[in-house]
Amino acid sequence: MQEGVILLGHGSRREEANEEIRQIAKLVQEADKDRIYEVAFLSLSHPHLEGVLEILIKAGCEKIIVMPMFLVTGSHINRDIPEKISLQKAAYPNIELVLAKHFGLHSGIIDIIKDRIKEASMGDQL
Q1: Pair 10, 70: CB distance under 8 Å
Q2: Residue 124 — pLDDT band, cuts 50, 70, 90?
Q3: What is the mean pLDDT of the chain?
Q4: What values do phi and psi take at 100, rounded to 5?
Q5: Distance between alpha carbon 99 and the CA centroid of its chain, in Å?
Q6: 3-state SS, residue 123
Q7: Residue 38 CB-half CA count within 13 A
Q8: Residue 83 and residue 66: Cα distance in Å, rounded?
């Protein structure tokens, strides 16, 4: 069964912010050749979730995982994204649509935080 993954960002008026998510998707796609990766945005940028779902379905994906590119729980994680997923499940009953957890309290976050602090401590600042 072909799987697709949508990295779902908030979306920004600043195109460079949207481009970061696209670059992340490209790197993950290079590391995971078994799935098809696409990017979608909740608002302020395109493409939106609905359009990307259609792309993946046309590409033959029978299972699509939506990965929210959000750090912490908020109204998008608790309400907006689950509502959108529910609507899309109704629109595409033959597609297995799965919502992954946001980053939240995942143990890998600790290592990232420590790495960024170490970089800053050594003078590697933006």
Answers
A1: yes
A2: low
A3: 95
A4: -80, 160
A5: 10
A6: coil
A7: 24
A8: 13
pLDDT of residue 123: 84
Strands 35-41, 3-9: parallel, antiparallel or unpaired by DSSP?
Answer: parallel
60 is written with which tokens? Answer: 């033959």
| Phi, psi (degrees; rounded to nearest 5) at 69 | -90, 60
> What confidence score (pLDDT) does residue 32 get?
97
pLDDT digits (tens, 9 = 90+) for 39-82: 999 999 999 999 999 999 999 999 999 999 999 999 999 999 99
Count the Cβ atoms, other than its own, within 10 Å of residue 92: 14
Task: Let me know: does 10 contact 42? Beta carbons within 8 Å.
Answer: yes
- Beta strands (DSSP E) in 46-112 are 63-68, 96-99
Q: Is the alpha carbon torsion for 118, 77, 85, 50 positive or negative? A: negative
Q: d(Cα 5, Cα 54) in Å, to the nearest integer?
A: 12
What gap in Å lies between CA 106 and CA 124, rounded to an integer?
25
CB 69 within 8 A of CB 38: no
Rounded CA-CA distance 4/52 in Å is 10
CATH fold label, 3-121: Rossmann fold (3.40.50)
